Amino acid sequence: MLDTKIGLEKGWHPIHVDNFQLGPAKSLIVSWEGPGVKAEIIPSNVLFH
């Protein structure tokens, strides 16, 4: 499993994910956390394209 952490300033930020699956497992989990925000999976209602 890859676990990468970066710091962001407040505001909108583009997210780009390239994901290649080899084998039967098919999952990608993206989470966030910050000051006053417990770690949680990013809800779909805050993502758009």
What are the low-pLDDT stretches, counting only 5+ consecutive residues below 50? none
Order of helices and strands: EE
Shape: globular
Largest sheet: 2 strands, antiparallel
Averaged pLDDT: 80
Number of DSSP E strands: 2
Give the terminus-to-terminus CA distance.
26 Å
Radius of gyration: 13 Å
Output the number of helix runs: 0
Strand order of the largest sheet: 1-2
Tell me the β content.
15-25%
Write a structural description.
With 49 residues, the chain is mainly beta. Helix content is 0%, strand content 18%. It has no helices and 2 strands. The chain has a two-stranded antiparallel sheet with strand order 1-2. Strand 1 and strand 2 form a beta hairpin. The N and C termini lie far apart (26 Å). The relative contact order is 0.16. The model has no long low-confidence stretch (mean pLDDT 80).
SSE map:
Elements: E1 31-34, E2 37-41
Antiparallel strand pairs: 1-2
Précis, in short:
The chain is mostly beta strands and 49 residues long.
For the structure shown, list the relevant keywords.
49 residues, mainly beta, 18% strand
